[in-house]
Amino acid sequence: MYGSLPDKKQGYPILQDISFEIFKGEKVAIVGYPGAGKTLLLRLINRLSTPSKGRIFWDGQEYNRVPVILLRKQIVLMPQESKLLGMTVQEALDYPLLLRNLPQQVIAQRVRKWREKLQISDEWLKLTETQLSSGQRQLIAIARVLAIEPQILLLDEPTSSLDFTTANLVLRTLKWISQNYQTTIVMVNHRLDLVEGFCDRLLHLHEGCLILNQTKNMVNWQKLNQNIHNAAYKKDDFDF
Ligand SMILES: Nc1ncnc2c1ncn2[C@@H]1O[C@H](COP(=O)(O)OP(=O)(O)OP(=O)(O)O)[C@@H](O)[C@H]1O
């Protein structure tokens, strides 16, 4: 993918010199300092934003030629802040599947399957947003996108509100769906300890540029860990 989006206020590109491919079934992690452009990159992949320059391809076909409805069926984005929109947990889990016109029995099976994998208790089902902790809300948001069983899952900081054990459970579950359904997963995550055990490939964004695109085994994780939280770094300072 290659793209750039002008900052509407200041008129310079937010993302630039970005070119990479994502292969079917891959688990790709995106890391980078706050404001690096990670969320925007997910939005471009999900076609919620359009690049002012550059092109994005899906299976060799340019994005603007692929019907949006087809993309929406295959690609699901879990945003950083997930809302239940006044629904109970049960309703929120069922809703995306109802929108896809799945039979009630299939909906019930899918929701139960992913609830069990993520250890979401029956007792939560009647609760609404204000009765849930941020970690519980995040776990439900993850179950909701997994139950859709899309071809491509885009996850923006899916473990930010979770403790280490629950975050590990989530990543094991994501690995399971990837292995069993060949789901492609693109995940933004700040926690390198989790990312290292999860991804096949790492993309590192810095100030809107892609400064690293490497398979997991080629990444110098120790050095990345030292550099990633340092906003003062410039593109040329990175030497991997
Ligand atoms: N549509 C837009 N118009 C103008 N500026 C935008 C637009 N979308 C994002 N930005 C700006 O682009 C920059 C990158 O934003 P983005 O949310 O992608 O960063 P991020 O790497 O996901 O950050 P964080 O880790 O804090 O979530 C920010 O400075 C943001 O204000």
Automatic annotation (TrEMBL):
InterPro entries: AAA+_ATPase (IPR003593), ABC_transporter-like_ATP-bd (IPR003439), ABC_transporter-like_CS (IPR017871), ABC_transpr_CbiO/EcfA_su (IPR015856), ABC_transpr_LolD-like (IPR015854), P-loop_NTPase (IPR027417). PANTHER family: IMPORT ATP-BINDING PROTEIN. GO terms for cellular component: plasma membrane. Keywords: ATP-binding, Nucleotide-binding, Transport. Pfam families: ABC_tran (PF00005). Gene3D superfamilies: P-loop containing nucleotide triphosphate hydrolases. It comes from Richelia intracellularis HH01. Residues 3-232 form the ABC transporter domain. GO terms for molecular function: ATP binding; ATP hydrolysis activity; transmembrane transporter activity. The lineage of its organism: Bacteria, Bacillati, Cyanobacteriota, Cyanophyceae, Nostocales. This is YbbL ABC transporter ATP-binding protein.
